[in-house]
Amino acid sequence: MPYTLEYRVLPKYLEVHIKGTLLPGKELKEAVERWSKVAELCKQEDRNLILALIDLEGQHSTSSKFNLVDAASTFGWQPDYKLSVVVKTDKQFQHLSFTETVMTNLGYEMKLFTNKREARKWLLT
To answer: pLDDT under 50 in the chain at which residues?
Structure first.
């Protein structure tokens, strides 16, 4: 796998660190794997608040991002999950803003940040 997924269980939320490179043509498959694992961890650890620190190189196509969110319920993502995503660069933020919009429009709660402190504050309110 060209990415790693590490996590910590904290008293009120799950903190997930995702690092690596998106492989062209495998973006959707690997994204489903990653977020399925996060959903599994949420269930296992009884958490519905997720702080995701994402450092992935490469980009998803627009259709890949939409298909991922559209299929979220099929791989365990629950409507009561609240996802706060921290990215490192403005470019990553701009790239993922479409995903944030689609998730919100489909009834999920997600917000993007470039600052972990702000992301955590939003998550816990």
So the answer is: none
Residue 82 has a pLDDT of 98
SS3 letters across 60-94: CCHHHHHHHHHCHHHHCCCCCCEEEEEECCHHHHH
pLDDT for the residue 12: 97
DSSP 46: T
Closest by alpha carbon to 114, among 94, 125, 83? 94
Structure tokens at 122: 């939003």
* Model confidence pTM above 0.90: yes
Contact in structure between 18 and 56 (CB atoms under 8 Å):
yes
Contacts of 107 (CB under 8 A, 6+ apart): 79
Q: Note whether 68 and 28 are within 8 A (CB).
A: yes
> Contact at 8 Å (CB) between 60 and 102?
no
- The answer for residues whose C-beta is within 8 angstroms of residue 63's C-beta and 6 or more apart is none
β-strand 14-21 against 3-9: which pairing, if any? antiparallel
- In this prediction, residue 1 carries a pLDDT of 53
